[in-house]
TrEMBL record:
InterPro entries: Aminotrans_3, Aminotrans_3_PPA_site, PyrdxlP-dep_Trfase, PyrdxlP-dep_Trfase_major, PyrdxlP-dep_Trfase_small
Superkingdom of this protein's organism: Bacteria
Listed cofactors: pyridoxal 5'-phosphate
Protein name: Aspartate aminotransferase family protein
């Protein structure tokens, strides 16, 4: 399959070779690489991508889920032209009206945001939320869940690795660094919890209540594995009781699981939330929002002594380009029926994939919520990271190469995100690609 992939992408192959001679590994982010080489795209419009060799794809990666309206949507373009005319492209190093407008718009959907701050990425949002939480509680440790991703900073690049048998039991998860170069400090100060396993979580959190100041989680792991509603409620109650700040990382689920994120879906209010991706309308952004008493820890007027204030800074925080694009995106999505129609199309596509899988007797299913789903070769319950190790990655990978061959791109082993630009034509093209891929899959794998 990889030979077939390479043969159809000779221009991408030579481009990657050249890129690799200047850019480390040829990619600006490790997850962008896959074998034998990632393709290079020359064009994007609506739901579509065109690679250097002229192959067209329906795009389900969508800038890792950021583009809920698809590529180059007209409302985003108009907003960009306007902001360019009105105030240029960078922040003034001072608060400007668009920041206030955007804050109010977000607050309507996330009523728990008594205060907020803008950052430039999801990574910065989770990092800052954790710093606020530790300052607020005066504690030293954070707790995170197995396999939950919160961006590429040291404190959260710690997990378990069931594939390498480095997981320990769910009762005592064994923390391992997820990258070379993570100082031991973070390994010792990041406690790992098993997702959706309430008795084990309760025991670990209670036994370390003096030290753990923050519990951070993706309320839907990787955007598609839902927490049991009782688990979320239990976690909310226990963290409150034990004096821990509960942080929902909704960088992925925000505006995608529902417009108000997973917190609206579950009806559970965390103390802090990290947002990113969709809220920037395709431009870099992050948001930390939540309880005033916690966010106020970073208020510069709080104390003349710098050491008594939580420091937060960033040259491009609140940059007008991201805010204008994000504001246009949110307002568009708030129109009656808009968001629901993307969810309906997502469900239609998932149903189509599942019924094709059944008729071809291919052991593939979809799992997800709202406008995100994943395609897995797995049987039985999937409620946490350990369950995912039962996924037949080799099968999914085979399917991925076949799908790329037939004009569907989500990047190997990645989730599928939908957009407003994925209409009937794109859904039909996708289902035709799945049909051809399933037929070939049977010939390849069995
Ligand atoms: N948290 C979650 C849940 C994410 O999915 C991501 C990005 N995939 C991040 C944080 C990090 O965001 P960014 O890539 O903007 O730093």
């Amino acid at each position: 399959l990889q030979a077939q992939y390479s043969a159809k992408r000779t221009k991408s192959a030579s481009f990657f070779k050249e890129a690799d001679s200047v850019i480390a590994g040829g990619v600006n982010g490790n997850l962008r690489f896959f074998q034998p080489f990632p393709m290079t795209f020359q064009k994007a419009y609506g739901a579509w991508l065109v690679d250097l060799d002229g192959n067209h794809y329906v795009d389900y990666l969508l800038s890792y889920g950021s583009l809920l309206l698809g590529h180059g949507h007209s409302v985003v373009r108009q907003a960009l032209e306007q902001v360019w005319e009105d105030q240029g492209t960078s922040s003034f190093g001072a608060t400007h009206p668009l920041e206030l407008e955007m804050s109010k718009e977000i607050k309507e959907l996330y009523p728990g945001f008594e205060r907020l701050r803008f950052t430039n990425s999801g990574l910065e949002a989770t990092l800052f939320a954790l710093r606020l939480a530790l300052a607020f509680t005066g504690k030293t440790h954070i707790a995170k869940f197995e396999g939950h991703y919160h961006g590429s900073h040291d404190h959260v690049l710690v997990s378990v690795n069931p594939e390498l048998n480095q997981a320990g039991s769910p009762e005592t998860p064994q923390a391992v660094p997820e990258s070379y170069g993570i100082p031991d400090y973070y390994l010792q100060h990041t406690i790992i919890l098993p997702f959706n396993d309430w008795p084990a979580c309760e025991r670990i959190l209670t036994s370390m209540k003096e030290r753990i100041g923050a519990v951070i989680l993706e309320p839907m792991q990787a955007g598609y594995i839902a927490a049991d509603p009782r688990f979320v409620v239990n976690l909310r109650d226990l963290t409150e009781k034990l004096g821990m700040v509960l942080i929902f990382d909704e960088v992925k689920t925000g505006f995608r699981v529902s417009l108000g994120g997973a917190q609206a879906f579950y009806g559970v209010q965390p103390d802090l939330t990290a947002l990113g991706k969709v809220v920037g309308g395709g431009f870099p952004i992050g948001v930390v929002g939540g309880k005033q008493e916690i966010l106020d820890m970073c208020s510069p007027g709080r104390s003349p002594k710098r050491e008594e204030v939580v420091f937060h800074s960033g040259t491009f925080n609140g940059n007008p380009v991201s805010l204008a694009a994000g504001l246009a995106t949110i307002r568009y999505l708030k129109q009656p029926g808009k968001f629901e129609s993307i969810v309906n199309r997502t469900n239609e596509l998932r149903k189509g994939i599942e019924s094709l899988a059944q008729s071809f007797e291919v052991p593939i299913r979809t799992i997800g919520a709202g406008t995100i789903f994943n395609v897995l070769a797995i049987e039985g319950d999937v409620s946490n990271y350990r369950d995912l190790s039962r996924n037949r990655k080799d099968w999914r990978l085979a399917l991925d190469y076949l799908l790329m061959d037939n004009g569907v791109y989500s990047k190997p082993l990645n989730r599928f995100s939908m957009s407003d630009a994925h209409g009937p034509k794109e859904i039909q093209a996708t289902l035709e690609a799945f049909e051809k891929s399933f037929a070939a899959f049977k010939a390849t794998v069995h």
